[in-house]
Amino acid sequence: MQKTAGIHHITAMVNDAQKNIDFYAGVLGLRLIKKTINFDRPEVYHLYFGNDTGQPGTVITFFPWTKQLKGRVGTGQVGVISFIIPNNSITFWENRLKKFKVKSFQSVRFGEKYLKFQDPDGIELELVERQEGPINNWLLGEIHSDIAIKGFGGAMLISAQPNKTADVLENVFGFECIGQEDDFLRFKSEAQLGNAIDIKLTPSVRGLMGAGTVHHIAWRAKDEEDLLRWRKLLQSKGYFPTVIRDRNYFKAVYFHEEGGILFEIATDPPGFTVDEPINQLGQKLMLPSWFEGKRKELEEILPLIEVRVLEGDK
């Protein structure tokens, strides 16, 4: 059976680009690995954050657009995004969030302790200590490799039809169902990162797309040949995947599963060093070749943004 390794990336919608950078880079210590545009709406940034190398399974991306309305988290969406932190680092993160006036609280799910909080736009996040996953060597402010976020732990999905979504995870993507606890059903993949997916079984309000919500979740394909196999498999099971789209850093197909969530399958290669060296990731506005002729126009439209060490870290 064909299997995905787990999450490739997660993409969400927010209002303010600089606030987004200040939180995910400044507070959470992720590396801004790519500053580009939304290929479908080039007047909007597409910002990518990840670990020091931008490895699949660590990358969270954003469409920051000041004019978009506030969304509502609900069915047909990713409800919560989980990040892995090293063992014995949860107290550090609890104190760090408090220092930057981010409210947090602890909860337990499937025997693991989670530190739950929201980003400035209301996206639900949580940190969980796990041994698995490579060390993240990106340094910013007081964050160092012993406590730095490693990458995704997983995600919680809010489906309009939980059993249908469970069927896709298990019988299309090859996740293993490892059990139910309260109103959550958990699935795991074989990867070290982005490998634990929980489906919420109880009803929820219908999700509304907008700032503070997740746009889509992407699953990993080994390469373009693997992606073609995924596309044929989806078609054979009655889904309607898009044509393969070139996103410069990966190739991808998209489809809505029956619970209403937008799923993407994205290739690991070519990766984020295809257009700039690894030591310069995220420093310059990178445009795909078909937009390069509009660089000057786009640079005048897009707001000025920067990665900066926040006052509390100086």
TrEMBL record:
Tell me which residues make up the VOC domain. Answer: 6-130, 151-268
Q: Which CDD domains does this UniProt record tie to the protein?
A: PcpA_C_like (cd08347)
User: Which superkingdom heads the taxonomic lineage of this protein's source?
Assistant: Bacteria
Which Gene3D superfamilies does the record cross-reference, listed alphabetically? Answer: 2,3-Dihydroxybiphenyl 1,2-Dioxygenase, domain 1 (3.10.180.10)
Instruction: Tell me the InterPro entries matching this sequence.
Output: Extradiol_RC_dioxygenase (IPR052537), Glyas_Bleomycin-R_OHBP_Dase (IPR029068), Glyas_Fos-R_dOase_dom (IPR004360), VOC_core (IPR037523)
Cite the Pfam families for this sequence: Glyoxalase
Q: Which residues form a coiled coil?
A: none
Q: Which PANTHER family match?
A: RING-CLEAVING DIOXYGENASE MHQE-RELATED
User: Could you tell me what this protein is called?
Assistant: Glyoxalase family protein
What organism does the record attribute this protein to?
Peribacillus huizhouensis
